Amino acid sequence: MSAHQHDHPDHSHSHSHSHSHSHSHSHSHSHSHGSGKVLLFALIFTGAFAIVEAVAGVLANSLALLSDAGHMLTDSLSLAVGAVAAWLASRPASQRHSFGLQRAEVLGALINVIFMFVVVAFIAWEAVERLFDTPEVDGGAVLLVGGLGLLVNVIVAWVLMRGEQNMNVRGALLHVMGDLLGSVAAIAAGLIIYLGGPSIMDPLLSLLVCVLILVSAVRLLKAVTHVLMEGVPAGIELAEVRLALADIEGVQAVHDLHIWSLSSSKYALAAHVDIDLLARWPGILPQIQQLLRERFGITHSTLQPEDRVLGARCELSAECAAR
């Protein structure tokens, strides 16, 4: 009986799958579209100032400014990746991609993390070289441009934090926060040098920023990897979901339970549900959907009902036959 339903689902099973998918898609579309606009604004704003800061860094001979400009240039690239990923994530499902392209935002975040590792490695290399051969730095210019950079990064970070906090935006925000730290380091280096301190503070503070960015990049990489490996979403316990479903009247047991992330904010579930009588399934199904949606935020579910009594008889018959 259960095998037949799995291959040819009844009307109620089909409704469960299509309703949840439709809800998930419309929700994803609006938010992805909104995050795309936010990322596009940040891209234009960041890219324009990166050019200004790069020129100032060369003129002032400051690694702190050049590293911050390098951050912002890679930010522009990462924000462009994020904007494209947000657009892809909003595309509807197709014959080739039945879930749509919701994981594009996860791939965008992964690319951004890789960018950050490359930038950190480059700046760290330059900083170590300058520790042994420190050039003269124009502290006043570094202080002025670093201050402007801080203002730009605060504005961009504020805009990104007001948007949807999906993994794609988090990846872009990681870059911007790295820029913000870079601007703080540039201001500190410029102020120290302007007041007569040693120029070696410029590469030293750049190294400090690299360490801080690296910590955040590793944290985001772990989150991206968890989604790509189809791990259970953070904040959801498999045992808790199983118990909650089993508490619904008529549900005897839940097995073959799988929960994974379609994206950083969209979750899916598949399970076999043992019920006392198959005729009760049309009434049990909406209760399960409501519980999953309201309590666990799971909007896409594929549920296969199975007759507990019939299943037990089949198992018993198989055992008897084996003997």
UniProtKB/TrEMBL annotation:
Membrane topology, from the record: Multi-pass membrane protein
Cell compartment(s), UniProt: Membrane
Domain (Cation efflux protein transmembrane): residue spans on this chain: 40-229
Pfam families assigned to the protein according to its UniProt record, in alphabetical order: Cation_efflux (PF01545), ZT_dimer (PF16916)
Domain of life: Bacteria
Cation efflux protein cytoplasmic domain segment(s): 234-306
InterPro entries assigned: Cation_efflux (IPR002524), Cation_efflux_CTD (IPR027470), Cation_efflux_CTD_sf (IPR036837), Cation_efflux_TM (IPR058533), Cation_efflux_TMD_sf (IPR027469), CDF/SLC30A (IPR050681)
Keywords: Ion transport, Membrane, Transmembrane, Transmembrane helix, Transport, Zinc, Zinc transport
Gene Ontology cellular-component annotations: plasma membrane
GO molecular function terms attached to this record: zinc ion transmembrane transporter activity
Transmembrane segments: 38-60, 109-128, 140-160, 172-197, 203-221
Biased composition annotated in UniProt, kind: Basic and acidic residues: 1-13
Main location: membrane
Comp. bias (Basic residues): 14-31
Family per similarity comment: Belongs to the cation diffusion facilitator (CDF) transporter (TC 2.A.4) family. SLC30A subfamily.
Protein's name in the database: Cation transporter
Lineage: Bacteria, Pseudomonadati, Pseudomonadota, Gammaproteobacteria, Pseudomonadales
